[in-house]
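Example record

One chain of 71 residues, shown exactly as stored in the release files.
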Amino acid sequence: MQLQLNVNDFKANIFLELLDVFKKDKLINDYKVINSYNDDEQDILDDLKELQAPLKSSGHKIDKFIQINDD
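Predicted C-alpha cells for this chain:
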C-alpha cells in the first residue's frame, strides 16, 4: 500500500523521526521524501481544481471519505 502526505515544513522533522521509528520497528517498509509533483500528478491536480468550481456552483455539498483496506 502507498500513502502520500503533504506535511507542514515546520513539523516535518518530527514526522520524519516518527517514520524512522516505524521503519526500525518494521511497521513500514520504506519511505521517501518527494519535494514536488511529477507531470502526471500535476495534471491530475489541475483537473481536480477545474472540477471543483462546477461542483461548488451546482449547490451540492460533497463529503467523501475514503477507506483503504489492506487485504
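Notes: The two ends are 10 Å apart (CA to CA).
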